[in-house]
Backbone:
């Protein structure tokens, strides 16, 4: 499912676009009000800046409030998009994230290493691609596939074993 498949992202995007259109409309009306005040005789000896601020004050406030609302919608849109974005999964990235989590204890609370760790299905798909591309032979393919499918070796056991060996080779 794509990013626009999520109704929350769609709603935030629609609200953000509408608020931007409203910003342009408010700015145009404020500018029109300020320019029309120039011909008003009661502002005859008043400085130009005061004329603009006096005639467009309501539009300036409305513009700032809508800009704040658009900013909040944009932040919500970015957060929703990042949460829905698919994370790449591979062993090198998982190793890098695990090292970062060891160096910065607070980073481990995010659980990123588990999100980027390839699943058994990911590993099987990669193995199939290697076999089809001719990078490995049939015997090697079957041996690795058996090891992946083996009921005794689950994803959690693979992670624990990998962490243990990384710690051994780290020192």
Residues:
């Amino acid at each position: 499912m794509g990013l626009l498949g999520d109704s929350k992202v769609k709603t935030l995007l629609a609200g953000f676009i509408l608020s931007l259109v409203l910003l342009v409309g408010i700015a145009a009306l404020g500018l029109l009000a300020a320019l029309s005040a120039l011909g008003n005789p009661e502002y005859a000896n008043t400085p130009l800046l005061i004329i603009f601020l006096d005639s467009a004050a309501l539009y300036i406030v409305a513009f700032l409030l809508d800009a704040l609302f658009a900013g909040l919608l944009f932040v919500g849109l970015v957060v929703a998009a990042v949460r829905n974005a698919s994370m790449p999964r591979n062993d090198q990235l998982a190793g890098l994230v695990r090292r970062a989590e060891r160096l910065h204890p607070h980073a481990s609370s995010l659980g990123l290493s588990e999100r980027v760790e390839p699943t058994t299905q990911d590993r099987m798909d990669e193995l199939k691609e290697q076999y089809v591309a001719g990078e490995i032979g049939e015997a090697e393919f079957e041996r690795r596939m058996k090891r992946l499918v083996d009921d005794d070796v689950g994803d959690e056991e693979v992670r624990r074993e990998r962490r243990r060996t990384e710690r051994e080779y780290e020192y």
Observations:
- The mean pLDDT is 81.
- The helical segments are 7-37, 48-84, 91-103, 112-116, 120-132, 138-149, 155-170.
- The two ends are 43 Å apart (CA to CA).
- The chain has seven helices and no strands.
